[in-house]
Amino acid sequence: MTDSARVSSAPRRVSRRVDGITESATLAVDAKAKELKAAGRPVIGFGAGEPGFPTPDYIVEAAVRAAKDPSNHRYTPAGGLPDLKQAIAAKTQRDSGVAVETAQVLVTNGAKQAVYQTFATLLDPDDEVLLPAPYWTTYPEAIKLAGGVSVDVFADETQGYLVTVDQLESARTGRTKALLLCSPSNPTGAVYPPDQVRAIGQWAHQHGIWVVTDEIYEHLTYDDARFSSIVKEVPELADTSVIVNGVAKTYAMTGWRVGWMIGPPDVVKAATNLQSHATSNVSNVSQRAALAAVSGDLSAVHQMRAAFDRRRRTIVSALNGVNGFTCPGPQGAFYAFPAVQGALGRDIGGRTASTSAELAELLLEQAEVALVPGEAFGAPGYLRLSYALGDDDLSEGVGRIQRLLA
Hints:
Elements: H1 3-9, H2 16-19, H3 25-38, E1 44-45, H4 57-67, H5 82-96, E2 105-108, H6 110-122, E3 128-133, H7 138-145, E4 149-154, H8 165-171, E5 176-182, H9 194-206, E6 210-214, H10 230-233, E7 241-246, E8 259-262, H11 265-278, H12 284-295, H13 299-319, E9 335-336, E10 347-348, E11 351-352, H14 356-367, E12 369-370, E13 372-373, E14 383-386, H15 391-405
Parallel strand pairs: 1-12, 3-4, 3-5, 5-6, 6-7
Antiparallel strand pairs: 2-8, 7-8, 9-14, 10-11, 13-14
């Protein structure tokens, strides 16, 4: 037998299912930035969608008390602590205007797990999910892992990064099972106005399409933009919708890993069964911290939002001053998403970037600024910058970009 025959007959070491997914681009960029910093390079990271604030004290204190309570040292129900599920239901009524029962709530290890488990529960092989692009990098991978097929529906900056009902209808087929809606949006910061949310919801209901709505940035809106839950706008969707949310962005709790999904009881029960075999319960200490967060007032949130708003104005103004960049003003979340086609194909420090991925690599090497290329979000020709980092780093980082591309 030849060597090539031996290689071709060898069993696969990694399954096709897992081998077909890609690393999280945002986490990869963040890890690279931290690695370079540890090596002594003054890298400024715009990659991770992570508030630069500490978790509010009252939440940390609740966790400390929980860690000392022996009842939190044992297994608890896989679907979440009853007190937390009740508090999430109350918080959803308060913030989204959607009334839910505790049987409709599943507490997960971050909203990312909620996204995956939602698609794993809803999708059969080859079911299609309409995915407005630019999209968060994890969405298509979660859909793929669940056996589904993502169908990109692209809206560029001339549309405010907002897809229309006509675009969705053009992408709909007999295999369309669900639509994923994220507003405020990661990566663009776009916020769908209530009338557009309502129109999309009515269209989905008319065609029997499930709606998975990611509402994790609900409290981070600016100027006249307001968050609007599609389930509140179209109550008829209650039996064919799943709300994904969590404490990470609102309360600066990315490391605590607490999210949730809210949906019809039969769907939540099925997803809970899945979680019981995948991870069991979320850390009890983290759940107690999340309970303090969602049960408390929003004063700390409002302070963080005011800082994000200030940084938003700074970064948009600065990016629009970069030669070749065009940056619409984001209305929500904490991301800027400039179009950078005008900076491609030019000589930059003796090199030329023909794609936004190459431009991001060049900016890291020559300006020591880490950001995420649009390719990771289904949008070549764009870059994503998180403005959740501190004011000084933000100004210095964008200044480096301006100087390099001048």
